[in-house]
């Protein structure tokens, strides 16, 4: 199923998961910084901080 939503991508993902009764959000992304730490993008960080469901980040 494909959906086109308008607005901030992170808030739309969180809202969609809550409205659909999903128990997990799976996101791709994240890259290594020069210091070896994972550098999250804006959307991934927003979802991780705001989702009431489990979030899995796949690098």
Task: Using the CA coordinates, give the radius of gyration.
Answer: 12 Å
Which strand order spans the largest sheet, edge to edge or round the barrel? 1-4
Helix count? 2
SSE ordering: HEEEHE
**What form results from the Cα inertia axes?**
elongated
How many individual β-strands?
A: 4
Rounded mean pLDDT score? 91
Task: Note the main sheet.
Answer: 2 strands, parallel
First CA to last CA: what distance? 24 Å
Number of domains: 1
Which class of secondary structure composition applies to the elements? Answer: alpha+beta
Q: Into which percentage range does the β-strand content fall? A: 15-25%
- The helix content is 25-40%
Low-confidence stretches: none
Quick description:
By secondary structure, the protein is an alpha+beta fold. It has helices at 9-20, 42-50; strands at 24-28, 31-32, 38-39, 54-58.
Fold and architecture overview:
- With 59 residues, the protein is an alpha+beta fold.
- It has one domain (9-58).
- The chain is 36% helix and 24% strand.
- The chain has two helices and four strands, in the order αβββαβ.
- The chain has helices at 9-20, 42-50, and strands at residues 24-28, 31-32, 38-39, 54-58.
- The strands form two sheets. The protein has a two-stranded parallel sheet with strand order 1-4. A two-stranded antiparallel sheet has the order 2-3.
- α1 (9-20) runs parallel beside α2 (42-50).
- The chain is elongated, with a radius of gyration of 12 Å.
- The two termini are 24 Å apart.
- The mean pLDDT is 91.
């Amino acid at each position: 199923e494909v959906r086109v939503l308008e607005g901030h991508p992170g808030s739309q993902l969180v809202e969609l998961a809550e409205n659909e009764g999903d128990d997990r959000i799976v996101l791709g992304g994240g890259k290594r910084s020069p210091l070896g730490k994972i550098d999250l993008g804006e959307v991934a960080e927003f979802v991780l901080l705001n989702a009431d469901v489990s979030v899995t980040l796949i690098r």
